[in-house]
Write a structure and sequence with these properties.
Helices cover 37% and strands 18% of the residues. With 332 residues, the chain is α/β, with parallel strands linked by helices. It has a domain at 36-175 and 254-326: Rossmann fold (3-Layer(aba) Sandwich). Strands 1-2-4-3-5-6-9-10 form an eight-stranded mixed β-sheet, with helices on both faces. Strands 7-8 form a two-stranded antiparallel ribbon. The longest helix has 20 residues, at 307-326.
């Protein structure tokens, strides 16, 4: 064997035995994660429009329970939901993560249309789709929601037989208790009416979803703009907008009225320092449920999505879901 080949073999041995660092380490870590689950791009129909979704399936688990997930006000599935889904799927649970109509990769117009009635229709469509899948146990379906969709899972569980368990973190429960100033409410009515009138002529009036307190937006409390940036993937513009009629319709949306009708186990996690949603109302909603576990954390609304607070919350949720789904067997 010549010297060049010997040197080549020695060099290969040295490289292989060195610890992996930097971007190469991240790539290998990602490969290791993917060895524990499969993520499948899929779609389903809601009121004739196509909703885009991901189906996470744990490997080496036959027909796992499934957690159906969607985002809160103006959110898309790419906004930190994969972090939750990957944690749940590593615990042996499948996850169906979808975008509402008009959001993300889903079809529909006007874009970014926040509407509780339409969102609830999409939740029902997602449940119907999950129950059609042979790859999951459709007797064990959980619903997971955050912020606005936290309210959606409460309403959906109250109206849908066969839901095994729900998780609602920092949930929106009552449109009448926003705590906003009279000046803000006047602006909300003004923008909402502009959009309602414009819709008659196919010309929607858009407002920012989130902004600084000096700018009218659907969320403009002092911590909203910086907090919401925790959710955004790289390259996503934080200056997103939605049709303004939700400023009117949100007032009439009251998931708290449905809370006593939720009969399945529920985990309700709320932020004691929340400036968007009344912590007292969330506590009352949880206490009115028959089988609710209510946890109050000394954090702000957006803290649940990132950092140590996220790690705490996602572990609590995974433990609760895994325990409740382990022995659940309800008829769809």
């Amino acid at each position: 064997m010549n010297k060049a080949k010997i040197l080549g073999i020695i060099l290969m041995i040295v490289l292989v035995t060195q610890p992996v660092q930097g971007n190469e380490g991240k790539a290998l870590q990602q490969i290791k994660k993917s060895q524990r689950f499969t993520r499948i791009d899929t779609t389903f129909k809601s009121q004739g429009a196509t909703c885009a979704a991901w189906l996470y399936l744990p490997k080496r688990v036959s027909r796992p329970p499934v957690v159906i997930m969607a985002h809160g006000f103006g959110g898309e599935r790419t906004f930190r939901l994969p972090a939750y889904a990957e944690h749940f799927v590593r615990q042996g649970m499948a996850c169906l993560v979808f975008d509402y109509r008009t959001f993300g990769d889903s079809e529909g117009e006007p874009r970014n249309y926040v509407n509780p009635t339409r969102h609830l229709e999409d939740w029902q469509a997602a449940i119907t789709f999950a129950r059609s899948l042979n790859s999951v146990d459709n007797r064990r379906i959980a619903l997971w929601g955050t912020s606005f969709s936290g309210g959606h899972v409460i309403v959906t569980a109250a109206n849908t037989p066969g839901i095994a368990v729900i998780v609602a973190q920092v949930p929106f429960v009552d449109g009448r208790s926003s705590g906003r100033s009279f000046g803000y409410k006047l602006q909300a009515v003004y923008h909402g009416l502009l959009d309602a009138i414009g819709a008659l002529f196919n010309s929607r009036h858009y407002v920012p979803i989130v902004a600084d307190p000096d700018t009218f937006a659907m969320m403009n409390t002092p911590d909203a703009l910086e907090g919401s940036k925790k959710l955004l993937p790289p390259g996503v513009n934080p200056d997103r907008k939605c049709p303004a009629n939700i400023a009117l319709t949100a007032f009439f949306y009251r998931p708290i009225e449905f809370a006593p009708k939720v009969t399945c186990p529920a985990l309700i996690i709320y932020a004691q320092q929340d400036t968007l949603i009344s912590p007292q109302d969330v506590s009352r909603a949880g206490e009115s449920m028959r089988k609710a576990t209510v946890i109050a954390l000394p954090i702000k609304h957006f803290d649940v999505y990132d950092g140590a607070e996220f790690e705490t919350v996602v572990r609590l949720e995974a433990k609760f879901l895994k325990k409740q789904l382990a022995h659940a067997s309800v008829s769809p």
